[in-house]
Amino acid sequence: MIDANQLMARVRARDARSFEALYDGFGKLVHGVALRMLGNAATAEDVTQSVFLKIWTSPDLYRGGSFASWVVRVTRNRCLDVLRKDSKNADSEIPEDLPEAEILEDQVTLRIDAERARSAMAQLPAEQRTPIELGFFDGLTHEQIALRLDVPLGTIKTRIRAGLHKLRASLEEARR
Amino acid sequence: MNDHDHFLDDVAVYALGALPRAEADAVRAHMRDCEICRDEYAALTQTGTMMSASASTAPSDLVKRRIMREVRGERAVRSTPLWPAYLVAAASFVIAVISTASNLSLEGRSHLATSQVAQLEHTSASLRSELATQRRMLADVVGADARRYVAGHGEVITNSNRVYLALNSLPAVPHGKTYQAWTQQRGAKTMTPSVLFVPDLQGRAVVQLPTKDAGNIVAVAVSVEPASGSKAPTTAPVFLVATE
Description:
The complex is a heterodimer.
Chain A lengths: L3 H9 L3 H23 L2 H17 L9 H19 L20 H6 L2 H10 L2 H11 L5 H8 L3 H23 L1
Helix pairs in contact in A: 1-2, 2-3, 2-4, 3-4, 6-9, 7-9, 8-9
Chain B lengths: L2 H14 L4 H13 L1 H18 L8 H19 L2 H26 L6 H29 L4 E5 L2 E6 L2 E6 L9 E9 L6 E6 L7 E5 L7 E10 L12 E4 L2
Antiparallel strand pairs in B: 1-2, 2-3, 3-6, 4-5, 4-7, 7-8
């Protein structure tokens, strides 16, 4: 199992092998999110390269906690920058500082393999899955989602919350 | 739905990353005082990360090759850094001078005036102290505990509550000018003037910044200033590095 915190400590000491192990552990996650958000293989690979080189040149940007959550945020924000340049989106963002309460270990995240996560997503009712995907992977704000789906804003928020809770329950079940 | 459910809905949208900045700021402000919402946010952020796994796809092998080429290329440069060689050269020079001074005092004592011997011994003691300082600097900048921050023309390095600039390829300063370092303490709004220095002929400079509290320094900068230094920067920084 990858201990990303230990690897990052070695990356700070300029250990290229630990950095390579980090890429091997999280490269698919970063690239997958980028490809899903941008829909373009070449740009997704550029973002992947850019995210990991940022990790190498500025390892102190990561301040502990779940590395997977942090790197997903960094990737999403990088993709949102690309999408904004193309004027496709408004100004949503996720801060890259993680809350102190976030203690999910990376081993837990990595045990959720791609297939189980896809299956859990597929089990969500469409009225919950679609706004979640539009918000997370397409970078739309809640207002844009409401507009696109022609659903009241309050309803969208409630569906997002309910969907995330249902997803959480499915993924927790898949872990056992 | 009660009043607080409204906040919980916003927290969920925030965790998803779908709140515009202004509303995100409001949610963050609310969460500072609301443990329920903080727990909700932590739980749902985890869910978002787990959900990301549904998109996992390996990039082409070329991506890893390009990344590692840059990483290893940088490491190849770093494996023969200029500044330790600079310090070793300086230390070697100091050792040679000390040895010469010692030999003179041992072999030629009988031919020298007492005052000359005393002066040589004083010089020898000063040089020994300088050598000890150089050795400590070398240990600090190459040590495994050193924290390095990439800066224009080199690095800012912290170790054992000391701060160093290890720079190379610095352009020569114009006549009447000098490089000046600046530090910013945590909570301070302005930068504090620090040492003045000029690089050697190869553009190298290894400088310790005098500070009693390196742990509270959050930024280091260098600018070009008049030869006598400045109380506040008069030119744009050559570099500005955050060190926390």
